[in-house]
Amino acid sequence: MSREFREFDFFFETEKQKVDVSMSHFAAYDEYSIEWQKFELTVSSNMALDTQALASCFRAEQEGRKLPISCISNDEHHYTITADSIIRGEKASAIRIRWNTAEVNGEAKGDEQLRIPGLGNYTVTKMEVIDDGDQKLNITFSDPIYPRQNLDGLIEVEDARKLQFNITGNVVSVFFPERLDGEKKVTIRKGLLNFRQFKMDSTTSGVAIFKGPKPALRMDSKGCILPNSQGLLFPFESIGIHTVDVRIIKIKEQNIHQFLQVNELDGNDEMTRVGKIAIEKTIKIIADTTTSQNQWTTHILDLGKLIQPEPGSLYRVCIRFKKKYTYLPCRNEDEEQDSEYIYDVAPEQ
Fold it and tell me: Cβ atoms within 10 A of the Cβ of 125, count?
């Protein structure tokens, strides 16, 4: 090797250790032991850290009382630091958390004061409108709610009367006798009890947004009619619809065995193989086609006016709606997008 290549100078650098600390949240050990709490912090690093060394970088105390610190590794780059045995009393208190990650070659430092609410100072954390055909409002609290209390007057929803309530853990579900539409003020008054029967110490309010109903059909049965067993009255419910298409398929007595080879009595597989369309008809179920129908309405179809039932045969009632049968602005769009007939009445997709 020639002299000029015997020495080769070059530069390199190693990746610097990076440690980031972010605050997380208070948490009870379980939802019914809120007097004892813990506080968690999240640590992320570009290199693997020793959990014992990382835990020693943190200090926590409550009103002068030192709190135990623990660390667990979620993976080689993410860790959870827990300040343990925090007491939540009847009055509010505070904890102080300090950290200096120099011991693990990090630069992150911090000093935070955190307020712990008193047992009576629980709050609403979330309000959500659920609409699966019937509206309800779920109100989530920071604590479980005492289940054997009368919530009339404690929870109020603008323009709503005769509310019904269901308490499950820290969630109160509010049910309405009629559908609501638009923004409504929700008021939760002080005095509502958590599961320890501590009273909420202040009134709070928020806004819930209720949307207008989507057109839908529903019924209890599966559209199966056996002459002389259920009769020829066919009940169903509608919302946001003024007209429906009805199709009745007849399965003759000699084909019922073949039908039951691939179906339960309320099934609908291979209908074209074993059945024949007896009638198809468009029926107006609401006379007013301009004023939107925002509540569920029950209808009764008298099938005796549509078919002449044959003893021993089985009849499948199918029902659907098209966009032009609804009160929606899009009801005059191309009908090719409309749904197929449905056997177990459900909302149009």
Answer: 11
